[in-house]
Structure formats: C-alpha cells, structure tokens
Design goal:
Blueprint lengths: L1 H20 L4 H10 L4 H22 L12 H20 L3 H27 L8 H17 L4 H11 L5 H25 L5 H21 L5 H21 L1
Helix pairs in contact: 1-2, 1-3, 1-9, 2-3, 3-8, 3-9, 4-6, 4-8, 5-7, 5-10, 6-7, 6-8, 7-8
C-alpha cells in the first residue's frame, strides 16, 4: 500500500510537470494506475482527472504568454475544444475495458511517434496559411483524441498550433495548457457521470500534479527543450513496450 501510494504521487508530480512543459504526462500516470491494480479504462479516466490541476496551474503560470495562432479566434478555439473533449470522452464510456487494453499500446506508441515528429511537422508550416475550416477540424480531432485517451495530447496540440502558424513556443505552450483545461474538464464531467473515477487514487494524485504543473511551467523558461523531448520519447517507448508485453 505504501509503495503504491509513493508510486502514484511520484507519477502524478512528474506527469504534471511534463504536461505543463510539453506533454506526455499520461505516459506516467496510466501505467502507474494500472500497476496498482486499477482497470485500464478507469485508470485512463482517473489519470485524466488527476492531471487536471496540473493543467490549471500550468495555464495560470503562462497566462501572460498565451496567444492563439493567426486567424483562429480564442472563442472559436475554446468552443471547438469543449465539443471535441466531450465527443472523445463519450466514446471512452462506450469502450469495454478489454478492448481498451488492446488499444492502449498502439495509442501510446502513436502518441510517442507524433511527439517525436512534432517539431518537424510544425517546422514545415510556418510558410503556410491554413484554411479556417481546416484549423477547426484539426482542433476538434486533437481534442476528441484528448477526451478519449489524453496520452500525448499536449504535444499534439503544440504541433497543431505550430502548423497553424504560432511560432512562439511559450505562447503555444500556454494555449496548450488552457485548451487542455477545457477538454479535460468536460471529459472528466462525463467520466464522473459514467462512474469511471477511482476516487481514492485520484485524490492522492491531484495535489502532486498541481504542484508539478506549476513548477514545470515556471521551469519551462529555463529547461533545454531537447533534453525534455528525448526523455519523454524514451518514456513513451518504454511504456508502450511494457503494455505490449502485458
């Protein structure tokens, strides 16, 4: 019991910090919850709730830097994010645990690869002028993914904002945290309604994620991005391999 508690607290703190800086926190919280005996679907929902305070503190810490990409008004972005998160969460409610266990390794691997390719994808977009419909469709797709799985959604949002023309990493990071707050909040509301939350584990992890998110966002101004990115990719590959083996 003590070891399980220590594992959950450490995973939540590190995940909150990772999500505030770039993303990938669910690579830590989902395996930690599953290792302590929580069913996969419940673990995914509980980990999402546990990381919500970290998104909040990260968004607050970067509130002055937050800025939308050109041609994408904040109100439109927020409305689409809420709709996407709700659709993804509803899909998770309909997914049997056994099916989700089979899908998780592939989701983790896909998120890790997209995380690794994020800067290259974003770098190709600075000379483009994305169509408003394409921008809305991209936001909806990524936030629906986040409502369903959440793993790697932060880096997908960063890559998307880069593709839409946001060249400031801090501005994109602050916006990513804000969008994550919205899609996670609506998703968590549906998870609670569907009875998917393991409340004891969620309660343990939320405070640790809150502290990690705030410290991670403040440290984002000083931490070498390449170090963090390589560490997250290594973590994602390790967790993917672990779930494939299980």
């Amino acid at each position: 019991m003590i070891l399980d508690t220590a594992l959950l607290l450490a995973a939540a703190f590190a995940a909150g910090a990772l999500n505030a800086v770039a993303g990938g926190g669910s690579f830590l919280t989902l395996p930690a919850l599953v290792l302590t005996g929580v069913p996969a679907v419940t673990a995914n929902a509980t980990g999402t709730l546990a990381l919500l305070p970290g998104y909040l503190s990260g968004a607050w810490a970067l509130r002055r830097e937050t800025q939308t990409p050109p041609g994408l008004p904040l109100r439109r972005l927020l409305v689409v994010s809420i709709l996407g998160g709700a659709c993804g969460a509803a899909l998770l409610l309909w997914t049997p645990d056994a099916t989700f266990r089979r899908v998780v390794p592939w989701l983790l691997l896909a998120a890790t690869l997209l995380f690794a390719l994020g800067p290259r994808l974003a770098g190709r977009a600075h000379d483009r002028n994305p169509h408003p419909v394409g921008a809305v469709a991209g936001v909806f797709a990524v936030t629906a993914y986040g409502g369903y799985f959440n793993g790697g959604v932060g880096i997908l949002l960063l890559a998307l904002f880069g593709l839409l023309g946001q060249t400031s990493l801090l501005a994109a990071n602050g916006l990513k945290n804000l969008v994550s707050v919205l899609l996670t909040s609506i998703a968590v509301a549906l998870y609670i309604a569907g009875g998917l939350i393991a409340w004891r584990e969620a309660g343990l992890m939320m405070g640790a994620a809150l502290l990690g998110g705030y410290l991670g966002a403040r440290g984002a101004r000083r931490l070498p991005a390449n170090w963090l990115r390589h560490g997250i990719v290594a973590t994602g590959l390790t967790m993917s391999a672990m779930f494939f083996l299980r």
